[in-house]
Amino acid sequence: MSKKKIAYSVLDLAAVTEGSTPEHSFKKSLKLAQYTESLGYTRYWLAEHHNMASIASSATSVLIGYIAGGTKTIRVGSGGIMLPNHSSLIIAEQFGTLGSLYPGRIDLGLGRAPGTDQLTAMVIRKSNNLRAEDFPQQVMELKTYFSKENSTAKVRAIPGEGVDIPMWILGSSTDSAHLAAYFGMPYAFAGHFAPAQMQTAFSIYTNEFKPSEQLKEPYIMACVNAIVAGTDDEANYLATSAYQAFLGILRDKRQLLQPPVKNMNDLWTDVEAAHVMQMLSGSFIGSASTIQKDIQSFVAQTGVDELMFNAHIYDFDAKMHSYKLVSEVMQSEFEV
């Protein structure tokens, strides 16, 4: 075995906490981006979701511009843009604009899921007739719009053409692994809410990877949850906000991110608890020493090149402190 440092990044859902508003969430996101930039985080990605009371990052491209404009060095991008919700040309223009404003700092992570419930997805997509099945073709269209060779085409992305925008394939199942490998693109897996197929997806991607102009060797990033505090008990207490959020998903009763509670047994059944813990099995919860051991095991098992951390933490100061503790852990070299 050899040792290496693992890049570390942030996934932000612009969570709206109980008693707060999206306006407050955006200001907190910028503060968190500036803070994590100072801690050596590589990327700060925002996720496209719709019709969710607790997630304010629906206008993802707009929010990326806000965060990039308030930071200096950290890469800012989408984790991800749900491409079938949009015209490929419009996304090329939006990210071409972002890449022109903040050269060398913008990432475009692409997913095929709607990022919402089926009814809302129908409303979003009813005017474009796009389907998840169109996703590979749309990725090809984006590649074309960003290429300098498209300058003689009748339809061009201005701005966008010739702008360096690294594109990623995102996934929560094995389907996306095949596609990322085929296109020779970096691959990010949503282990923060759908960890079941993560290891299988990584194996498929690595085994099937075809080198491309963008990427010569496979590059894997796992998105995971991290809730870290001074002690395991404190971290487990903070994690009850995440448990409540996922319980709401199970019950289809979405609500703002709730304060932590001392006893989840008052809120869920044994069956619900088992479901939530399965969904959150891609999580690191505990003190810094606890998560260091857990991350070492995870890295050795998966061979990831980068970890992206999401934190469902109600108290903003505790959230900032969690990201600080994570950064200290990630300064270590891990056996792979």
From TrEMBL:
Listed GO MF terms: oxidoreductase activity, acting on paired donors, with incorporation or reduction of molecular oxygen
Superkingdom of origin: Bacteria
Luciferase-like domain span: 11-305
Cellular component terms per the entry's GO annotation: cytosol
Alphabetical list of InterPro entries matching this protein: Bact_Lucif_Oxidored, CmoO-like, Luciferase-like_dom, Luciferase-like_sf
Stored CDD domains: Flavin_utilizing_monoxygenases (cd00347)
Family: To bacterial alkanal monooxygenase alpha and beta chains.
Name of the featured protein: Luciferase-like monooxygenase
